[in-house]
Amino acid sequence: MKSIARALITVLTLAITSLAANAQESLPPVSPTATATLKKIVALPSVQKAMMAIMRDDELTLKDQIEITEIPAPPFKESVRAADLLRRFKALGMREAHRDAEGNVIAVRKGRSLDGRPRLVLAAHLDTVFPEGTDVKVKKKNDRYYAPGIIDDARGLAALLQVLRTMNEMQIETVGDVVFVANVGEEELGDLRGVKAIFQADKSIDGFISIDGSAVWRIVNAATGSRRFKIAFNGPGGHSFGAFGLPSAIHAMGRAISKIADIQTIKEPKTTFTVGTVNGGTSVNAIAADAALGLDMRSDSAAELAKLEAHMKRFVQQAVDEENARWNIKPGPNAIRAEFSVVGDRPAGSQPVISPVVMVARAAIGVMGIEVKAIQASSTDANLPIALGIPAATLGGGGAGSGSHSPGEWYMPIKAYDGPQSVMLTVLGLVGVVGAAGASEPLLPVRTTIKIAQ
219: which of 107, 210, 324, 385 is 20 to 30 A away, CA to CA? Predict the structure, then answer.
């Protein structure tokens, strides 16, 4: 055991020394403070043992992942999986773990500081994109495990549990509090309701990490925002022959879709849109009285997202006006009308690559001897804290896989322990860890300015 520990610390020290050389050339080097802090942390006997414990428990983490995957958690129906995570939190010694009013499972691991600061949230989401009735039984083929949601985000939840399990087993004491969260509402029309509730209730959060996906070499440091609308078209309707001459809600919707499809968006910052769903009408021989479409718009820029929304509203109104004009219908009861209803609003935002969470995560991943290949924007639970100006990032849970959001989603536990290890080291670097030689200084600043989550 001692020889393994010495070998481990040698590898970790060499890896952290070469981190700047291995990082992307376009990125600033990892700060000397982050490097020095991580060196101090990985030299602690408790942390060395923790790193080896995560490797030891690799199969246990995978077992957790498979069991969690097989508990259905459709959007807005995460309660059964939430109950399972609450049970697991309590079994790991978090007796005060609880579910909040929104359905999030929360367990606070207290630090030594009197006020619990800096206070870091470590989260993974409970919900999947798959509807009720989806077969979520895990099937193994060769070295791959197949099941909807096995990566997104059952891997994140399993990694979350492993970090908690290891810190408790090795009795690692931190300076600041770590709030372990299994949250609802990340996927689809959940609209980040879980993290929104967390930040509404707790104004003392100084930093946030989401574990989502598997890739350890990728850090999400910017928020791809989205605005989602149901656009309803309504009119008088009537018999296709007897009432011919009245405008059609479906025809107006078709005109709108045609205009939307021709919109040109800029490539940088990436800005996208799609009409994802359509419905309406009552019969093939009836002029449609109602129709609706589902519109998704995304951008890495809040300003570009606002511009796109303005274009959409203008073109939809033009389509309605053209349908009414086609039949010479004036404003009134026989005219088509369109109504926009917001069904999703994820804020966009960005932060510097020298943000403390990003910088410490880079150092931690480098400690693992892994090159950070991508620091990029995405749409995750970290959107909200990033938009609020709170240091945040999304990290991978380890292993490899593909097909997220599809029935063919698959996972391979290749060096899967890299995920929980790098996440744990990032957490310890941010909140500080207490050792025999004293405490490492937390690298996560305590906030003094508080924005309110909307």
Answer: 107
